[in-house]
């Protein structure tokens, strides 16, 4: 369709204008840029987060498996589009890379994972505030890191803070919860988006704590909350609490979106094995060594953590533990020569157990130097001999029973995959690099030799380098090359695994973070972590949104190890990790404070229990402790409070599905038409290509930001990987939008061709053969809380018929041709009158909406003030009760002395009560003053500055 400069300017303003919160197109620009297939509940959740410009944030509490990350990504993308670039994402440490990948690959947001090393490097480079990089980016950090750098975090004026797995902060109402309270203080006053499937687990106070993180003025203090909502069996109390929560909480249930999202199951496959005699002997000897009271190789500051890691390597393979024991013995010899332990033990085994640094961060282990005394030399020498003997025994064992069991399990698992119609691909997890190499050799000598790819923290093996070089050559000159060798290597390995060549990926814990492998439906836990959240993270690489097949989950069980059997039992029966419906295990995981805490409890049992009876008793106690955490009665309360979907809401979701797709398609069409027009002399466009493909052969003279857009083939979203990914936020598109918006356009005549439009617009059909005038202006309403822009089309026919806004806007989307003929007359003055009427209508809608926002905020603050007064009044009631008791005691006193004592006590209490009453009135006045100040702040946030910018005037002819 032909387009004029005037229409291109209209398209540019339409694509970039800032929309009001209630607009159905609010997220359209983010939708155009996102490379995701959205479900309506995700759009609904993101719009809920923008519901009011006065809101301090929201709690998105969708049931697990419904894509809360996508919802948050939409909100972040929209903030970015509005040029609000101070964005922080706080996540559990093991989810940092996953978030990085989701936001960069699906929303094209620049991201920075900030952790200890880059933070230290930034400081050394003279950067005073590493949390505010010179090149704006979404900053992704772990909870522990943000808490440790709270002062830096506090200094940044964040536009939005996303807190994933926010149930970790649910005990923030407890002063002793240092991490949660540190984050609360550092992030106070910032807009927050909390994500959790389990906002309420063991106590209603947990929900109070999470809400207080978002907005401290939703409820009063803890005492008043506890007093008001102690009994939710009273309908009025329950409804009152629900009403106060609804403006902040949004929750979607799986059953409500069954028509949009399909779920697959997990099919467990347990492969039992018995280690050979020498393997079993090695296990016993290493266990005895680790249980010694004093160990020279493991300083006290590191012992718990390092013991855990060594047990993991021992369970992994003889190759893994042999390497660790040899390395520790060598380091011990070196330290013996230097008379100290200043070298961190992490260096000794961290290369093999890649998750060491992350585990240390989660466990918050400190590593001060330990100086060796002269009297310990003999003990060190003896321990070196013991370690060397253990290492030699481990190195002598070249065949592992679990390795043989893996071949058996793969045959059975692939058989099941064939039955399910799934691809014969397996994702095998190990916690050790040495075990990874052993499995590569083992599988390489079996029928599974073809199509093996390794995935770890460095990916520097010959096979990975070859895959990378081939991938890089294949994608040279496309957007698939990011310029980051690490990111590109990961993409190359995943692409190889996805291809027909790839069959088995052997991944370490550290290497497999942040990759999505929905095309694979077989997960093998060769080594099983004790942290249930890590296990869920592993399975979630394949068993996630977008998986089309049931996922087989393979685990191994050492039948000679009683503790291993009980650990598997707990993970299977209590946490439901291996045979649940899509994501249900996440809901159970939310019940425990932290997977690390569970891991610590397991590690303590392995370390302290020696006899089978001790092991059995310890696991019985642990299971009893978990019973309350996992079977909490609060689940029922959570459902009552937060699960408020009804048939009307479900119908709204069905409508939202159509609206979201329409908004995206309309914006894509406008962007493509603008691009075709602006690049008509610089690119070749593929006729009628639904992908909007074009080949850019020359760059127009525009002030591009670096890097300059490359020449070559471009396609609109949802396209092949070989082309440059064209979108609204692409540097080329941004430059073209600016060029179109900056043009000065004199009045002109445009002929619109209705017959050339692919479709039917009933409102325009009666206007065919007519002509008239059209004035386009941009009306801006700016408040401290938000800015919104409206494109106002004032149009009329020569016969005097006024066109409504929608009809006038549709006229500008028809094929247009600029006529060279001079204008027959000046624009009629009636256009200005029509524009005034349109602007008045917009102002009235804004005023009515802002009045609603104000009423909601005022009601919230009134409730907060009442809560504060309730606390003060309760203290007075307590005094009244004490006075009654003293008076009763005075009446029943039998002696004069007792009566006099009661009278003295009564007078003292009365004096205290009088003082409290005066204090109460003063405090109530202070609460009212604070409420009024807050309401004044709300009024200021809604105070508007209005402006109008005329864009162009045209005379139109419709043929």
Automatic annotation (TrEMBL):
Sequence ranges assigned to domain Helicase ATP-binding in this UniProt record: 49-217
One term of GO molecular function: helicase activity
Domain of life: Bacteria
Record-annotated Helicase C-terminal domain positions: 409-596
InterPro entries: DEXDc_RapA, Helicase_ATP-bd, Helicase_C-like, P-loop_NTPase, SNF2-like_sf, SNF2/RAD54-like_C, SNF2_N
Keywords (A to Z) from UniProt: ATP-binding, Helicase, Hydrolase, Nucleotide-binding
Signal keyword on record: no
Protein name from the UniProt record: DEAD/DEAH box helicase family protein
